[in-house]
Amino acid sequence: MSNAGYVIVFSDEDYNAIFPDIETVPPILHRTIEDASAAIDTWAKTFDRFRTALYGQAYPYESTTLANEIVEKGIAVYGWAEMTDDEGDLIRYALCIMALRSA
């Protein structure tokens, strides 16, 4: 099987992948990791607080890259967005790129 493309997803704190709301991030199949990265970077800039995963620099990603994580696991964290809910509680989501495979 080979990768058919890449989609942007976000996950909760338990890292259960969730496809984003169509109004938030259109469900577009990106042909390359670079295209998906550019799209997710644009989305990340809409959050008040966003922390990019430091691939090649910091634990647990110091010995890998975003592309390697996608190849090995089928999904990789691009970074973490934080927002405050209506009750003032901090919510953190991992913005991820997930590979879709064709048979």
Structure, described:
The structure is a single chain. With 103 residues, this protein is of the alpha+beta class. The protein has one domain. Helices cover 19% and strands 38% of the residues. It has a 5-stranded antiparallel β-sheet. A hairpin with a 5-residue loop joins strand 4 (75-84) and strand 5. The longest helix is centred in the middle third of the chain and has 12 residues, at 33-44. It is globular and about 45 Å long. It starts with a strand and ends with a strand. 15% of the residues are buried. The mean pLDDT is 88.
How is this structure best summarized?
The chain has 103 residues and is an alpha+beta fold. A hairpin with a 5-residue loop joins strand 4 and strand 5.
Q: How are the elements arranged and paired?
A:
Elements: E1 2-11, E2 17-18, H1 33-44, E3 49-52, H2 66-73, E4 75-84, E5 90-102
Antiparallel strand pairs: 1-2, 1-5, 3-4, 4-5
Strand fraction equals 35-45%
Task: Kindly report the spatial arrangement of strands forming the biggest sheet.
Answer: 2-1-5-4-3
Record field, number of beta strands: 5
Low-confidence stretches: none
Helix proportion: 10-25%
Structural class by SSE content:
alpha+beta
**Whole-number total of structural domains:** 1
Q: Could you tell me the mean pLDDT?
A: 88
Overall body shape: globular
Radius of gyration: 14 Å
| Pattern of helices and strands | EEHEHEE
How would you characterize the largest beta sheet?
5 strands, antiparallel
| Separate helix tally | 2
Ends: how far apart?
Answer: 5 Å
